Amino acid sequence: MGAEAPLVAELINFGCHVYPSQAQRWDTHLHGFHQLDVTVAGEVWLEVEGGKPFHSRRGDAVLVPPLIRHAHRTRRGMTIGMFKFRAAPRYWALLGRRPRGLRLPEGLVAQVEDAGRAMREHAALARPQALAALTLCLVETVRRAGAAVPAAADPAAGRFWRVLERVETEPFGSWSVAKLAGECHLSPDHFARSFHALLGQPPREYLLGLRMRAAAQVLSDEPEVAIKHLAEQAGYATVHAFARAFRRVLGAPPGAYRRARSEL
Predict the structure, then answer these.
(1) Collapsing DSSP states into helix, strand and coil, what is residue 155?
(2) pLDDT 10s digit of each residue in the chain, 264 long?
(3) Of 38, 171, 191, 211, whose CB count within 10 A is highest?
(4) Among residues 29, 118, 31, which one has the least CA distance to residue 81?
(5) CATH assignment of 158-263?
């Protein structure tokens, strides 16, 4: 995992948040990026769809992959470091597709706490510190999982990552399985098999999730954008077709998703 292949493609946001010392529960939600929660003080329960809640105290962390519904609750208040980030494509398989909990060394928890303090004082200067703390947490996650970097398993993997990094920056581009295969200099069948082996999902499922994750981000961040315009931008001929695809991935139609996000 050298400098040429960072774990984190983009640190979207980080904060070390202090919540009041009374029982609270936050609404269930999901998003199109990874999130790492590190409990610094108090205790928190992270409820996840289709699994048991994670009960965390100081030193416990939970990694939540994209498009997993989850909610936080606390009985006595908490302080929690929240990293929201986009993982580099080559590490998706290593980070997993289900939420994962782990215990962090005390020194690493202190780094997260220090990064949160620095972020409150001067956010721009603190971002490199926050990114370094996040990277160390993710290295610990991968190390505990005992997994090998998937690029080592396939000589064509380097081409995969370069192409997928382009695709991630152009989620509404005219991508298809055939086009991705051509970019990797592989036949569509060979590409599909290799893609599934490296990332644990078919390329069509990946492309659908990519577009819907990007659409969900627009719905959250740009309330003035009409759903019809967003459907066209995402490559759908009708709002109905777009809404059906969006609901398949995110579990709610675009309008309901936008309303729910505005209420958080």
Answers:
(1) coil
(2) 444 568 898 899 999 998 887 888 888 877 778 999 999 999 999 999 878 999 999 999 999 988 788 899 998 889 999 999 988 877 887 788 789 999 999 999 999 999 999 998 888 889 999 999 999 999 988 887 765 555 444 555 677 877 887 888 788 999 999 999 998 888 999 999 888 887 778 999 989 988 998 898 888 888 889 999 999 999 999 999 999 999 998 888 999 888 876 654
(3) 38
(4) 118
(5) 1.10.10.60
Long-range contacts of 147-153 (CB under 8 A, 24+ apart): 147/93, 147/94, 149/1, 149/90, 149/91, 149/94, 150/90, 150/93, 150/94, 150/198, 150/199, 151/5, 151/90, 153/197, 153/198
Residue 156 sits at φ, ψ, to 5 deg, of -85, -5
Ranges of beta strands (E only) in the chain are 8-19, 24-25, 34-42, 44-48, 54-56, 60-64, 70-74, 78-87, 100-103
| Tokens 């380097």, residue located | 158
Q: Which two tokens stand for residue 176?
A: 């298809």
- Nearest Cα neighbor of 66 from 223, 227, 210 is 210
CATH 2.60.120.280 domain extents, the chain: 8-145
Beta bridge partners of 84: 13, 35
15/119 Cα distance (integer angstroms): 7
